[in-house]
Amino acid sequence: MEGIKEKNSQDNARLWKSEAMDGISLFKACFHNFEYRKHSHDEFAIGVIEKGCQSFSHKGSNHLAPSGSIITVNPDEIHDGRPAGAGGYQYRMVYIEPFVIKAIFEKSCNTDIPFCFSSPKTIDNQLSKDILKSMYCLEIGEDFESVSLFTEAISELFRRHASPVVCREKIYKDKTKIKKACEFMTERLDIQLTVEEISDYLGISQYHFIRTFKKTTGLSPHSYLVHQRIKKAKNAMEKGASIVEAAVLAGFSDQSHLTRQFKSYYGITPGQYKKSLKTS
How far apart are CA 1 and CA 272, in angstroms? Predict the structure, then answer.
């Protein structure tokens, strides 16, 4: 399993939902030691490095994102992240549901994801400043002006650096057995599954299943299962569940297990996220 390292309290982060715009979550962090595990998002992940430099892998390639870089990760794409040097890095992100982008461009298409970035890192100095300004405004304000600034900056980013998608299926869409495996696991998040149970359901060997799953999705079956459990716990907390209740619903052994896993994917603890839901 991919590792995670934390050494001191210099790391801090906050994740919260925008009250001004549906389908938008905001995130800001300063990391000196924290390392993300490999993961993906259902949303577009758009960010700007404010200080320092981030190192990350994306679809098998390594990247460096110095100050001013724009992070542009499409939904479902596997990536991780870590500080590139001793000074760490500070950055802000927005997670944008695909339906928001479709609405902004009034785009009607036969795919859930209407646009696609060809690179996870974009260098565009003026646009970087505009996006950061819009994030600041969206954080402190819920008025028409802050929403307009954000919409204009994000629209320009997509116009300049993303391409319209005619039809982009999810990575496992045409892999019938892998799709069935994902559905099988997602429907059983609250029970302890074994590789043998999943491979027997698919009618293939355990070794073939593990190898094919990793090749198709970029994650091991265990990592995928943990990721789905974390998302289920997060959704449960958003609906009012306590951390303990969310842990049980999502199939974690206890609250501390959920906390460790949640922090490794989101950079904050479930307690910090619950607090942001109350104060946002």
Answer: 25
Task: Give the up-direction half-sphere exposure of residue 156: CA atoms within 13 A in the CB hemisphere.
Answer: 15
Tokens of 153: 């900056």
Cα radius of gyration rounded to whole Å, the chain: 19
Domain assignment of residue 170, yes or no: no
Which of 47, 50, 55 shows the shortest CA–CA distance to 93?
47
- Residues 129, 93, single domain; the answer is yes
Residue type, 85: G
The CA distance from 73 to 217, in Å, is 16
* 83 and 31 both lie in a single domain: yes
DSSP output for 216-233? HHSS-HHHHHHHHHHHHH
Q: Report which of 58, 48, 59, 54 is spatially closest to residue 33, judged by C-alpha positions.
A: 54
Helix, strand or coil for residue 50?
strand
Dump pLDDT digits (tens) for 147-196.
889 999 999 999 999 998 754 444 444 478 888 999 999 999 988 888 88
**pTM of structure:** 0.78
Cα–Cα dist 157/122, whole Å? 9
- C-alpha–C-alpha distance, residues 70 and 58, integer Å: 14
114-146 pLDDT per residue, tens? 889 999 999 999 999 999 999 999 888 767 788
Number of C-beta neighbours around residue 269 at 10 A: 16
Q: Is residue 171 part of a domain?
A: no
**Tokens standing for residue 49:** 């490095």
Write out the H or E segment, with its range, that includes residue 243: helix 243-249
Judging by beta carbons within 10 Å of its beta carbon (0-12, 13-18, 19+), is residue 163 exposed, middle or buried? exposed
